[in-house]
Fold Phosphoglycerate kinase.
Amino acid sequence: MSYRTLDDLDDGQRVLARFDLNSPVSVGVVEDNRRFARHARTVRELVDAGHRVALLAHQGRPGRDTFVTLEQHADILAEYLDHPVEYVPDTYGQTALDAIEHLDASDVILLENVRMTDDELPERDPEEHSRSDLVQTLAPEFDAYVGDAYSAAHRRHASIVGFPLVMDAYAGRVMAAEYEANSAIATREFDGEVTMVAGGTKATDVIEVMTTLRDKVDNFLLGGVVGELFLRAVGYDVGRDIDENDLYESQWLANREKIADLIENHPSDLVYPTDLAYADGADERAEVTVAEVKNKDHDYLDVGSDTAEQYADIAANSEAVFVKGALGMFEDERFSDGTTRVLDAIAQGDCFSVVGGGDTSRAIEMYGMDEADFSHVSIAGGAYINALTGQPLPGVEVLKDDGEW
Ligand SMILES: Nc1ncnc2c1ncn2[C@@H]1O[C@H](COP(=O)(O)OP(=O)(O)O)[C@@H](O)[C@H]1O
Ligand SMILES: O=C(OP(=O)(O)O)[C@H](O)COP(=O)(O)O
């Protein structure tokens, strides 16, 4: 193995760990989400091994409403951990250094939002970041650095890439699990069919992923905004904005050439919806076959039942399924069918499966599915896209021993 994990870390050390607890914030209130539960497992291991643990994390960006202190994060994490997490309102000043000095075995402190320091946010090379005041002040206080913030590993920020250069560095459990699963489509050979659910609203991201993975994926199951854009490209009158909706036109103009290229060169990999669902005059779910659509007079908010059944079948018979984007607006139960039927088929089967995307993965808990029925449910957004498109993540690269993760 070419990177060190917690298995390689001797007990009873002074450990600085970088997590990603970045969360939605609604009117100043930090919302609980699966990042806390996941990172709590890494902290639990550190606590059980008798380490003295200081956590570094960020929240929001300067100037945004979500840019708040980490006080609430400490409380939420402590709940998951069932162990105290002391919030320290300072990142690397004297207050922080005093708190670090007073750590006992198995104590956990959470240092202040690292983006409140000037050193953190500039995108710089690891060497330059390793010379920053932040890194130079904190590094000597610890024996080891644990990088667990996979979902922020696409950022070349000081606390992500600076410490590993000057400290013994280890990948945390979240980092290792995310890396292994999300890179699998690029790095693993599968014997059977590889399928990708290509849906959701961020069509530009998804079409970039499709273009990169066109030789690896056997079936792209098209849905959501992505599906409509592909249908438009083959001559159906969908994939257009209605009224104020601005999901389609700009993404059509930005991606039409890539779409045309995929259609021309990989036609047999593309699986189109054959029917679509919308809300009728009585606000009930109604369906129409794609062939019957004469002009786009409805917002199509899900794939239809025939499509859902066909997609579920393909997923169930695949060796590996990667999900990027939902097939419909599943938050509204009327339009959840496409997404849930395919997720159910994956969950009940035994294929290798990865579900990514903050919004899409919410469908799993919303509809009472068990995360354990999937090989991996990612907590990353941008980093997941970077991994799928084969771009190295700086926060991963710095943890490699030999440059060959
Ligand atoms: N036809 C559609 N119209 C509007 N929204 C849709 C449609 N299909 C899917 N969605 C929305 O797509 C979202 C998930 O995809 P997206 O935001 O692209 O991905 P991510 O999971 O990466 O955050 C869901 O919140 C869902 O409501
Ligand atoms: O939440 C994050 O990324 P995501 O929105 O892609 O999931 C990370 O914490 C990175 O945050 P940033 O996009 O403000 O650098």
About this structure: The first helix runs from residue 34 to 48. The two ends are 8 Å apart (CA to CA).
